[in-house]
Amino acid sequence: MVPKPDMLRSALGRVRGLGSAKEGTHHWWQQRLTAVALIPLSIWLIASIVSLSSSGYAGFASWFHNPIHATVMILFLLAVFHHAQLGLQVVIEDYVPNHAARTVCVVAAKFACIALAVSCVVSILVVAFKG
Amino acid sequence: MFLPFDFAGDGELHLIVSARVAEDLGIPRKDWDLAAMSTAAKPATTRTLGTRALSRPLSPHLQIYRMPLAAMLSIAGHRATGIGLVLGLLLLTWWLTAAAFGEPAYTTTMAFIGSWFGKFILFGFSFAFYFHLCTGVRHLFWDAGKGFEIPDTQRTNQIVIAAAVMLTLLTWLIV
Fold it and tell me: At a CB cut-off of 8 Å and minimum separation 6, what does A18 contact?
């Protein structure tokens, strides 16, 4: 007889729904949440880029002096870099067979995404608070 | 489609496929091993090949297997555009940090982005973005358990490609 998966789990294990990876659906769910958030945010960014493409530095600065624009832009940046980091991790885990190289690549991708995200957010804040 | 392959112990790759697939792949008939094919038709039979025993189909190799369009859209489409868009994020970071450094840096960056080469890569990023958006929305529908049947997938393949092309062209018509 093949045991059903639930027969191998404790009551607590069933409640928490966590497998051997100890994280359950956390990664998957974060990827979906950021994906849904990015649908309106990224379309807003495209529209912003289109409207800023010919307005020069003054246009860029005045656009992000508006606190709503700065807020939406920072929300976009947080969502997009989180989403990118999660997606890069999946691709690296699927295609890099060597365990050590895979770990190094995943950590490097995460650090790079965090560094880029912070520099982008700081840049928006600098422009938003300047003059 | 039944496409296992294995090492027969003679140093050559052997492909076990149906006659129709062998014809599709353009393998000349003189290279067909009919005895092996009849064995493949009975996958439960254990066949000793050199030192290895084959009793189950092995994974088809990517270079041999002709992927369906949905698989191409998933790997060449969603994943590759995702990686490409990470490069787009580098460009976005350059743009924003240049603005933080002030007007001269911003003007330099915009001069690059506004050049024909800058516009060319922006066009590429815009298509990659819309493609990733459309295949991503389809992934969300799949997550909800909708659109898994093969006719649905074939229809949404066409929708995803057409929508990505139209959204890209629409954006560049506005610019």
Answer: A24
Please name the member of A53, A81, A122 whose beta carbon is closest to the beta carbon of B175: A53
How many CB atoms within 10 Å of residue A65? 14
Contact B13, B7 (CB under 8 A): yes
Q: Is B107's Cβ below 8 Å from some Cβ in A?
A: yes
In DSSP terms, B7 is beta-bridged to: B13
Q: Give B114's contacts in chain A (Cβ within 8 Å).
A: 53
Please report the domains of chain B, with CATH numbers, ordered by start residue.
5-54 (no CATH), 69-174 (1.20.1300.10)
**Contacts for B148 with CB less than 8 Å, ≥ 6 apart:** B142
Q: Residue ranges of chain A with pLDDT lower than 70? A: 1-7, 17, 19-23, 131
A91 touches chain B (CB under 8 A): yes
- CATH code of the domain containing A74: 1.20.1300.10
Tokens of B35: 């005895």
Q: How far is A23 from chain B (nearest CA, A)?
A: 19
Residues B12-25 pLDDT 10s:
556 666 666 777 77
CB B16 within 8 A of CB B40: yes
- The complex scores an ipTM of 0.85
Say yes or no: A48 contacts chain B, CB-CB below 8 A. no
- Structural domain for A118, as ranges: 25-129
Name which residue leads in pLDDT, B136 or B11: B136
